[in-house]
């Protein structure tokens, strides 16, 4: 009965310490020190090892160390093997901070002020009151919901768009593709917190940008392949978009010389919007293992047919 961890190694050492404190009877190993593969029952991974099924014949649960699971090739996981995504509270807390920073930065013209300071320009910009700046979130799951709950304090008109119906106090929620244009038409700052699936790949494209109010801002924190780069750069050039905060790109990291690095209207961060916190993540994993042993429902169970 061993847990194998294969992700960020610095944080892995913290995982090992928390496991030793909280579950001293449960052996915990850090990749690549896998010991006897037949002992591995639980795998916690960012990028999963090749040939999971044949290498670890007694695997019972696979955990994504992150909230997203698009890095797992579902066809390589045996159908009976549960894949669980991370629902620990640290991810949502850090995502809420990042998106709040990005929304306030776009709302208060931070990218313009950074450019002005570089050029030693002292020029005020007319302030738009929050109540006249619509903020919309695509994807109302654990993260999108948490973000909207916190943004409510600033007085923005808030909008949400999701596949299935959601009710969030103070937020006008739209459901399904047919409502996307109505949602977008009110959204001055758009936040993408969708998982990467075949339906969301390339969803941030020319058609979508054209449906936003002119000069809208974009916060892209889902996954890089959701953004169509050429459409996005054209939208910035033509003023359809006034600025963007990008935390995810394709590929990651971007190659040297890629236009996003130096674009004055783009704030780029290295897939760092949120981070799984070892302290609370270990509690989540131990709780899920205990539930699994008791034959109970598993939190964060991924629906392989939907892909998230
Ligand atoms: P959830 O699964 O909790 O939420 C996803 C939401 O998106 C659900 O409400 C789902 O609706 C909705 N959705 C999915 N597909 C569609 C679609 N085609 N049209 C409309 N709505 C759709 O995920 P999380 O909130 O935990 O995370 C979201 C994503 O954020 C992750 O998949 C990951 O890619 C990204 N992420 C990025 C991080 C970063 O650091 N940049 C960190 C963590 C996550 P429904 O439930 O109705 O199907
Ligand atoms: C995640 C991420 O999915 O960090 O958790 O992107």
Question: What features would you highlight for this structure?
Answer:
Rossmann fold, alpha/beta, binds oxalic acid, single chain, 308 residues, 2 domains, five-stranded parallel sheet, seven-stranded parallel sheet, 12 strands, elongated
What does the model show?
This protein has helices spanning 9-22, 52-55, 89-107, 110-118, 142-151, 180-185, 206-211, 229-237, 259-262, 278-293, and strands at 2-6, 28-30, 40-45, 61-64, 83-84, 135-138, 158-162, 171-175, 189-192, 216-220, 241-246, 266-268. The chain has 308 residues and is an alpha/beta fold. The chain has 2 domains: 2-88 and 276-294, Rossmann fold (3-Layer(aba) Sandwich), CATH 3.40.50.720; 90-268, NAD(P)-binding Rossmann-like Domain (Rossmann fold, 3-Layer(aba) Sandwich), CATH 3.40.50.720. The strands form 2 sheets. The protein has a 7-stranded parallel sheet with strand order 8-7-6-9-10-11-12. It has a 5-stranded parallel sheet with strand order 2-1-3-4-5, with helices on one face. The longest helix has 19 residues, at 89-107. The chain starts with a strand and ends in a 15-residue tail after the last helix. The model has no long low-confidence stretch (mean pLDDT 97). Bound molecules: NADPH dihydro-nicotinamide-adenine-dinucleotide phosphate and oxalic acid. Oxalic acid binds next to loops.
